[in-house]
Amino acid sequence: MKFGFKVSGIRNAEEAHAAIGAGAFAVGLAAQNSNQSDTIPDSDIAHISQQVRAVHGNTVWRVLLTGETHGGAIADHVHRTGVNTVQICNAVKPRDWTIIRAVHPSVRIIQTVHVASESAIETAREADQFADILLLDSSKASSYTGTSSSPEGASDMQGWSISRRIVEATRHPVLLAGALTASNIDQAIAHVRPAGVDISTGLRDRDAGNRLIVENIAAFAAAVFETPAILRSGHAGAYEDGNRATI
């Protein structure tokens, strides 16, 4: 898996094409049941997926972020939206991953692991047996580090330390997410050594109708690829497949 970045919270086809044009290998489309920010209806997700596929085929990951927790419901959600990748935002059981794989064998499965404490390591190990990609969300790491009096950046470092242990303990590619910005992405990559990163923080102008600012994506992309290549050649994972995990 080549190192790259995913842009989440895409709300329309124009934003998707802008993100891809800035270098994103994947666009995240958050369903209304996903408990994410910038959610959109399933009909919009299906439309964006169709538009992206018409231009890029399956070379770009069209990622459905779903809040469903049962295999059959997740498989139905994938079918309704026409995506080629599903990101499961909540914990599921092994049989649910098996159902999704049986119904949609060519769809990539990304499992979100919330890195709020060291218990995330065992959660990731279990998910690693079934998912194609692990997405580590360290945005809740501050709940583990303690109080608002913690030194600036302490929660980031704690979350990244646990995430690095997950990278070392798993075999599939890992994407790092959680309050990543152009100013801290080099530290995050150096500390965790992920296979890629996910960005959603600071991309929009909240005073202008939440408009996506293409320049902000470009700044993030520049910061990612200015990080030394040796640090971007970290844990690509053992899994390689032309239809799924390979970009």
Write out the strand line-up for the largest beta sheet, numbering strands in chain order: 1-2-3-4-5-6-7-8
The sequence of SSEs as H and E is EHEHEHEHEHEHHEHEEEH
CATH homologous superfamily? Answer: Aldolase class I
| Class inferred from helices and paired strands | alpha/beta
The low-confidence parts are 142-152, 237-243
CATH level 1 class label: Alpha Beta
Helix share of residues? 25-40%
CATH architecture: Alpha-Beta Barrel
The number of domains: 1
Quote the average pLDDT.
Answer: 87
Strand content: 15-25%
Count the DSSP helices.
Answer: 9
Number of extended strands? 10
Largest sheet: 8 strands, parallel, barrel
Distance between the termini: 6 Å
Radius of gyration: 17 Å
- Shape field: globular
CATH fold category name: TIM Barrel
Structure, explained:
- By secondary structure, the chain is an alpha/beta fold.
- The chain has one domain: TIM Barrel (Alpha-Beta Barrel), CATH 3.20.20.70.
- It has helices at 13-21, 42-56, 71-81, 94-103, 119-128, 142-145, 154-169, 185-192, 214-226; strands spanning 4-7, 26-30, 61-66, 85-88, 108-114, 133-137, 174-177, 196-199, 204-205, 211-212.
- It has an 8-stranded parallel beta barrel, surrounded by 8 helices.
- The longest helix is centred in the middle third of the chain and has 16 residues, at 154-169.
